[in-house]
Amino acid sequence: MNIAVLGTGMVGHTIGSALIRLGHSVKMGSRTKGNxxxxxxxxxxxANASEGSFSDAAAFGKVIFVCTxxxxxxxxxxxxxxxxxxxxxxxxxxxxxxxxxxxxxxxFICNTDSLGEQIQHTFPDAKVVxxxxxxxxxxxxxxxxxxxxxxxxxxxxxxxxxxxQMVVGNFLTPWGWNDVIDLGDITTARGTEMLLPIWVRTWxxxxxxHFSFKIVR
Amino acid sequence: MNIAVLGTGMVGHTIGSALIRLGHSVKMGSRTKGNxxxxxxxxxxxANASEGSFSDAAAFGKVIFVCTxxxxxxxxxxxxxxxxxxxxxxxxxxxxxxxxxxxxxxxFICNTDSLGEQIQHTFPDAKVVxxxxxxxxxxxxxxxxxxxxxxxxxxxxxxxxxxxQMVVGNFLTPWGWNDVIDLGDITTARGTEMLLPIWVRTWxxxxxxHFSFKIVR
Lengths: 217, 217
Known about the structure:
The structure is a homodimer.
Chain A: E1 2-6, H1 10-21, E2 25-30, H2 36-45, E3 49-53, H3 54-60, E4 63-66, H4 70-80, H5 82-85, E5 89-92, E6 97-98, E7 106-107, H6 115-122, E8 127-130, H7 137-140, E9 154-157, H8 161-172, E10 180-184, H9 189-193, H10 196-206, E11 212-216
Parallel strand pairs in A: 1-2, 1-4, 2-3, 4-5, 5-8, 9-10
Antiparallel strand pairs in A: 6-7
């Protein structure tokens, strides 16, 4: 299917290429058409890859992957345009990381609100599904990368059950996530976004970013 | 050794009894000596169990387990008395859960501070080790309870390396935690305390509180 990837950083590149490998057509969106990193990604990914503005990409995609830095997410989606998001599944991978106070980052929204919720409130006609934000992007598209013999848990949050099921079936399952917990509505994104503080500290303590969280039960 | 358990709730009872089973002498502390729940616990746990005020317990213990509700932790420690905490290992299991805004609870401290840090700041001569706060109390003292075939990860945070090592060797290891990650100083308690929001939502989604978090790597 036609999919938009918003964001030209490492997460956007990794998700975009993984979607191409699944047979989808992907348009990478950025602030302005012709973004150098987006063009490089298109060149590397063949005929099913294209690029354009946030608005071009969102108009193209039936599903929209939000791979922007958290503090740019709402602006990117406003640039994409509410009309281009309406009725569509919006997979929110972004995190409200605040690097302005030094390392490790804190969160600029948490506890009684979340970035996932702010997106859903701002674009009520989109079907926001928060997922994948709790692992490194290489692990997102290859759950087995953490360990060959074990597998982490992935969470999904969102108000639309069909949208969550669609994301699980079309993306999480092919990417190796065979233990998925549906936490409930989009307010549960508070829980997964608040995993970032332990993520960054585990990464610092172990020197390994290719890990995942497993709910042992 | 002589150990204080501050708090007479389910966590205090479970930790206290597990310490007795490890061969320690345990004094359970509460606001006033003779607390009904503390007396019941002593009756059930034999000759090595005793009870008293927070101050009695803290004076008795070489190690102090903080098993109070988070919003009562600092008051309980003030009642215990800085002089009775000085130089001792203080195992902080409490969480800054805020039930005042309804369910699921939010946190009354997070992101740029933590309850573990507040304890360490308030009692600079104590050696605070934050651990065990991320699982149900039955799992705290029996890591295998989550699953017979798998085992979660336990984190420790604290400024004193010897204190952390002492807690791992004397308590975490006998309780079955064979995968322990030392996150670093007490500021890393922000990470583990911020696991509570995903804990409560996972519990709500699965109906099972006897789970643990494993870092798959």
